[in-house]
Amino acid sequence: MQKDITRILIEAMLDKSLRDLNSNSRRAVRNLVDMGVHFSKGRFQKYFLSCVQTMLQNEESAYYDLIKDMTEHVDRKILFTFGMNLGYNGCTKGAKVIREVEKKNGYNVPWALSLWVDQEKMLHTPDTYQQIIRQGSELGIYVYLLFLENGQAETLLPLLKAWPDCAFVLFLKNTEISDEFVEAVRRCSNTMISIYADGQTDTVCERLRESRLLYGLHYGYGEADREKLLNGKWLEENLEKRPYFTFLIPDDSCGEQLQEDVYQQILSVRNSQSHAVFCIELKRDLQRIDAAISEDACLLGFNGDGSIRTCKGTESGADRNIFVNGLEEVLRFSAPRER
Questions:
Q1: Would you place residue 264 in the very low, low, confident or very high pLDDT band (cuts 50, 70, 90)?
Q2: Cα(333)–Cα(290) distance, integer angstroms
Q3: Most CB atoms within 10 A, among 111, 163, 169, 282?
Q4: Is residue 298 within 8 Å of residue 310, measured between CB atoms?
Q5: 312-326 burial, b for 16+ CB within 10 Å, e for fewer?
């Protein structure tokens, strides 16, 4: 019962803060962060919000401009619902369940689950992915990263509609985005869309902005991208698309040193507070969040054929395939706790 009361209080205060942002954005932002610090219980929440508090002491921070832009151009219901699903369900309610499951069962549970969606399977056996999210939710996973390439974005709508308490980030590349899909995402309010950064993104980003959706850009990088990522050219080239977030994702051939160099560049950009966009190195940041939530960092997802993908690469075998075994069984095989 206490958890329900806490959620009600947070929802009421978040709703008020989002309304206040329109009149006095800077003070409302600081009040919102202070509220988060007050209600935060986990290590990651306290650490993250304390960092944000420190950053916002800088009156010239570009993050004030980012937040102002979001509150003016993103549907308030999306900010509210996605924020609660990610922050409360993912970082508080779900994190508590994850820690309990890990302690009891002796295997790690990822804070966020990545799924490279097979469109044909989604169309012809839709319950396959519904079952994965159902099992994940029972283990405390409320954050899902869905990757779709060369398909129709509408394919993913049944998942967004069926799980209103989850936060979804859709990573779309060469996908067809219909007006019906855009409107459905706006109604669901639990989703962020990330578009692959290439020469075709300008028009798509403008559509998403006009539709008041929360969106970002992502890019898969390798050794050939070293210079433009480390000298800031890639970011500068994409700022004109006005994304709220950017995600850099290492490809399978990317070496550890480049990943670390890119992550340090990302941290430098974030700490400089000079760009009105929040930059993320997806692999490193997910590992950091997961380690803060449950000590052992657990980063994993599933390819389109059901095989498991970890920070070490793809692992084959029926006992590690989500289309053969349930999520809990796969985690027993592939993610035993180290301590």
A1: very high
A2: 19
A3: 111
A4: no
A5: eeebeeeebbbbebe
- The answer to whether 229 and 248 are in contact (CB under 8 A) is yes
Amino acid occupying residue 64: Y
Give the model's pLDDT for residue 1. Answer: 41
Partners of residue 315 on adjacent β-strands: 308
Residue 15 near residue 22 (C-beta atoms within 8 A): no
Tokens matching residue 122: 């989604």
Average pLDDT for the chain: 89
Strands 300-302, 308-310: pairing kind:
antiparallel
In this predicted structure, the answer to whether residue 114 has a pLDDT above a threshold of 60 is: yes
Q: Answer for the pair 31, 20: CB distance below 8 angstroms, yes or no.
A: yes
C-alpha 308/C-alpha 65 separation (Å) is 40
Q: Whole-prediction pTM value?
A: 0.91
Q: How many CB atoms lie within 10 A of CB 76?
A: 15
Q: Name all domains of the chain by residue range, CATH numbers in brackets.
A: 1-73 (no CATH), 92-334 (3.20.20)
pLDDT of res. 268? 96
Answer for the pair 158, 130: CB distance below 8 angstroms, yes or no.
Answer: yes
Q: Which pair of structure tokens corresponds to residue 179?
A: 């007006």
Taking residues 51-60, what's their average pLDDT? 75
The confidence score (pLDDT) of residue 251 equals 92
Residues 36-64 have a mean pLDDT of 72
Burial class (CB in 10 A: 0-12, 13-18, 19+), 38: exposed
Contacts of 50 (CB under 8 A, 6+ apart): 37
Task: Quote the DSSP letter at residue 149.
Answer: E
Least confident of 199-208, 263-272, 325-334: 199-208
Kindly report the backbone phi and psi dihedral angles of residue 250, in degrees, each rounded to the nearest multiple of 5, phi listed first. -70, 140
Strand partners, 240: none
